[in-house]
Design goal:
- The strands form 5 sheets. An 8-stranded mixed sheet has the order 1-6-3-2-7-8-9-14, with helices on both faces. It has a two-stranded antiparallel ribbon with strand order 4-5.
- About 40% of the residues lie in helices and about 15% in strands.
- A hairpin with a 2-residue loop joins strand 4 and strand 5.
- It is globular and about 55 Å long.
- The protein has about 425 residues and is an alpha/beta fold.
């Protein structure tokens, strides 16, 4: 009898220990299980530890002067403190939309969110990967523009896991939030970089109908994002639009990062009187589209039923060479005496040495091809379906960028922030 009682006590002790272990696991799983991604049901790995809670910086009511469909409704823009997101947010705020701008501020800037001394929209500092805590800001939106991404090509190439997590995982997270929380339309920012290995059509342009097969990490993640959008649209009857941005330029373009876009880089260097470092011979030609033209197309894609289910090139349909654009800027800032320095194409990503380490460094033929590629987009689909035609000329657009950057650089100097490093030396 005593042995049976002792056995029962031992069983109860074991059960109690097991229950305590289960409860402890649910509340805080051990670190080795987190490493194995074995987290409790309903919890993402270390989510509460990885991300700070969403923080609202300010909330400014929208203007009331517009007469567009959906006026007064919520429009969510992820990556809202970046160049394109902030410019679109400012425009839509003044058109009467309740704009919510979400950004983790890793590559966004708060000064993009103050135009002419005025704040706009509801600004939320948060990460798209922390999706569940964004529900109050997302639910019942008229449209979500998903612009948040890791976009610098060499950064994505040198940090492929992070690029996949942000560009693919972040897109999946926002699509799921849009599906579950009554977002009426989801508009995804893709890129012309998906045409990396695509031949132009008979007119010398890159068309949305062409087969794409990119290999570089950034363009690959964006293509995978596109496939996610198409899959969710088919599976859940979601209203979606894909925009393939060519080279977008204009005020508030990032000029502070290590490898800034070409247009803001040459403007920055010429204003300072520095010799810009250009790669190859400067004859390579690209399609550039002004941010004002992009915003007009964004409005059409968010308000027209003819946009749903389609992919659109956001392109001017024209191309300019590196040397031509440099000359336009040099003349406008009166620095034609500053001659650029040309480096070989294979040195383009020298500031990212990890790409050349190990037994299998990146193939330099890929860098040469990337630097020397020519691109010109076919924008006929946007013209035919939505009536969109670009209006801003290259000369007018570059002059406007110079005017903006003169003031922006002056403000940085006033604040003592003059350490603008570059990847090209």
């Amino acid at each position: 009898m005593e042995m049976r009682r002792a056995a029962r006590v031992n069983v109860l002790v074991v059960v109690a220990i097991l229950l305590a272990a289960v409860l402890l696991y649910v509340q805080r799983p051990p670190s080795f299980l987190r490493w194995m991604c074995l987290t409790p049901l309903g919890e993402t790995a270390s989510q509460s530890e990885r991300f700070a809670p969403p923080k609202t910086l300010w909330s400014v009511p929208p203007a009331t002067s517009a007469d567009l469909p959906g006026r007064g409704r919520k429009v969510v823009i992820t990556g809202g403190a970046g160049f394109i997101g902030s410019q679109l947010g400012w425009f839509l705020h003044n058109e009467g939309f309740d704009v919510v701008l979400i950004d983790n501020m890793k590559f966004g800037y708060q000064d993009n969110l103050i135009v002419d001394g005025k704040k706009f929209g509801t600004v939320v500092v948060a990460d798209v990967l922390d999706a569940k805590r964004l529900v109050p800001f997302i639910e019942n939106a008229f449209v979500m523009f998903h612009f948040a991404a890791l976009s610098a090509l060499p950064v994505c190439q040198s940090r492929p896991q992070e690029a996949m997590e942000v560009n693919v995982g972040g897109t999946a997270a926002m699509l799921e939030m849009a599906r579950l929380h009554n977002v009426e339309r989801f508009i995804f920012a893709s890129t012309s970089a998906t045409y990396e290995n695509t031949a132009p059509n008979d007119e010398g342009r890159l068309s949305e109908n062409a087969t794409v097969d990119p290999h570089l990490i950034y363009s690959l993640t964006k293509l995978q994002g596109e496939e996610l959008v198409r899959a969710m649209a088919k599976s859940y009857n979601m209203d979606t639009v894909i925009l393939r941005f060519f080279n977008v330029y204009g005020p508030h373009q990032d000029f502070r990062r290590l490898s800034p876009p070409f247009t803001s880089y040459i403007v920055r260097e010429l204003i300072a009187g520095h010799r810009a470092i250009l790669h190859s011979n400067g004859l390579q030609r690209r399609d550039y589209v002004h941010v004002d033209d992009l915003m007009r197309l964004c409005v059409l894609t968010m308000t027209s039923t003819k946009a749903v289910g389609y992919t659109f090139n956001v392109a001017s349909g024209e191309s300019y060479s590196v040397n031509e654009m440099y000359e336009i800027v040099a003349k406008y800032v009166n620095r034609t005496d500053v001659v650029p320095e040309y480096h070989s194409a294979e040195r383009f990503w020298d500031a990212y040495p990890e790409l050349f380490q190990g037994r299998r460094p990146i193939d330099k033929k890929i860098l040469i091809k990337e630097v020397n590629k020519n691109s010109r987009g076919d924008n006929s689909r946007a013209a035919d379906r939505l009536g969109w035609v670009p209006r801003v000329t290259m000369q007018k657009g570059l002059h406007g960028l110079v005017d903006y950057m003169r003031e922006a650089l002056r403000a940085l100097r006033t604040n003592g922030d003059t350490d603008l490093k570059t990847a090209w030396v």
